[in-house]
Amino acid sequence: MPEQMHNPERQDGAARHVPVLLTEAVEHLSPRPGGVYVDATFGAGGYARAILETPETRLFAIDRDPNAIAAGEALAAEFPGRLTLLHGRFSEMEALLAEHGIERVDGVVMDLGVSSMQLDTAGRGFSFMQEGPLDMRMEGEGLSAAEVLNTFREEDIAEILKTYGEERRARPIARAIVRRRKERPFKTTFDLVEVAETVLGRPRPGKKHPATRTFQGLRIFVNRELEEVAKGLMAGERLLKPGGRLVVVSFHSLEDRIVKRFFAARTGRGQAASRRLPHEPEPPAPSFIDIAPGGVAPSEREVARNPRARSARLRAGERTDAPPIGEAPPSPTVSIGERKAGGRRVATRGRAPRKGGRRR
Ligand SMILES: C[S@@+](CC[C@H](N)C(=O)[O-])C[C@H]1O[C@@H](n2cnc3c(N)ncnc32)[C@H](O)[C@@H]1O
Question: Which pLDDT score is estimated for 270?
Fold first, then answer.
């Protein structure tokens, strides 16, 4: 996945986020004058600005990164009374909107993952291209990536890299991580790059950087990104009015699979009556109509201009008047620190054992 490429468009050394699939996202959202919309991933406000260009729209923009929200004040001033910035997670969008008396909306857009500002700011620790503290927390709260590597059990680290990074060599990397932390704890992004390179070899021109999947896995774990996607989609389903639209842009196969399965289950795909056994209950009425069958990929032109767009996929649905289906789309999860002990599941809080303990 090319998420960690240097953004060619930088201004005065500062990273600037180039919105991906912007035209297609706004076309599918189809904002109408006077409508109420949610941009669930405000970032640098590229999507938000485009939505606000439709006259009299009211936009609630959410981001879990306090820096993104603070930087959005300038855009809010350009559109007085029309843009409300909300700091929080999109899994909590209903509660965030309820604080402003909003219960139903005309459209929700989600542009998943991290922004170029997050990736290109060395101090955030998201990028293997720049040395910085190994942090990766979008909100700056909770366990940092370094804390995970320095304290989790080897098998848990391997599980994170395998499940969320789809890293085939997760086990040897986890082993090398545990070996290395005994000598010196992890502090910076380059500490981790070094370990990934020891196991996978040096970067080769034209090939994905060897640390790509390790960084992706840790970032997804630290920010609980897949759980957020599943919960965010369901919140969107509950919030939308009939005829309202949900537009989602994802950047890697794990996210896209969740979005695809979410819409498949809600648009009646694979529910042909002829395939049901006589005693099987009627499936619920579709809560969405698929308005982007097969998904939308960026054009070659967009990818040439912005390589970060390469793996992006847009999926979108229009809400019907059927009740929300509610069931969570299947999404891979890692249960850290749970192990069998005498046949019972025991939560161990994912920390390394005390000295002399058997777990590593
Ligand atoms: C790809 S950027 C969005 C860019 C934006 N569409 C634009 O045009 O500038 C993704 C943003 O979503 C935010 N984000 C990621 N997961 C989130 C979540 N669960 N809740 C709220 N914001 C989230 C990130 O902090 C980041 O700023």
Answer: 62
